[in-house]
Amino acid sequence: MIAVDDVRRAAGVLEGVAHRTPVIASRTLGEHISLKPENLQRSGSFKFRGAYNKVSSLPPGTPLVAFSSGNHAQAVALAARLVGSPATILMPEDAPASKLAATRGYGAEVVTYDRYAGDREAIGAELAAARGAELVRPYDDELIMAGAGTAALELIEDAGAVDTLVVPVGGGGLISGSATAAQALGVRRVVGVEPKAGDDWVRSFAAGHPVVIDVPRTIADGLQTTSPGALTWEVSSQLVDEIVTVTDAQIVEAMRFAFERLKLAIEPSGAVGLAAVRASLVTGGRIGVIVSGGNIDAGRFSELLGV
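Structure (tokenized):
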């Protein structure tokens, strides 16, 4: 398991490279609630934190392969460019066009696959072996997890003590790193949030072991995972107190609120924590919420909000 010292070391690696995103509040939402808008992070999501922490640990020029629906793809592509390494990214054919374009824009080669028929881990491993490349996993890696946890570390350092930390959960890299930091800094409760259509973590917590589901059909494309990661489960099953789910409609409402009241454009996956708070699924005391990303193009944003 990772420890808070791993998260602190990652913070040192990221200093001057990643943005220290602000902590914001809203009187409408409640001044007891603090938000960490990682949509303002480099590459548009928290994923840059873990990707750079991992990629910068490798010898310069190391060929890289990653698989991702978009945010990890962009993060690895940018991190690779910063350290001078070539990157090949495996992405779903139906990944948002803006995420595909941004990944290529950072200089990575993109290889696509059918997310509903193909096994991205198997394809990614084969691709890495064929190219003699290092596989940079999206969440099941201690350096990725520790890097992701720096978002929570900063939130707590800048906002002060919170009673509850609310974190989006897909593969579990963000919540495992965040829960590690939260435990060391005195946070009483850590709550994960996932789409109702993709409730692999809820089922896993109920079963007491990782449960595999079909690829979920949800607007939160960044959270379309089918099971917790092995390493992220090891950490989160011990440090996370509860997992709640939100509907796509609640996600859209949270996106609308963030845009109209907070002047933030956030993607569906990034909005799930805010959606849970707005739906009163998380209440009581001081609450910190990680808004995990904002990689959504104007057309899709308008389509979802009906504007």
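The chain has a mean pLDDT of 95. Residues 4 and 180 are 6 Å apart (CA to CA).
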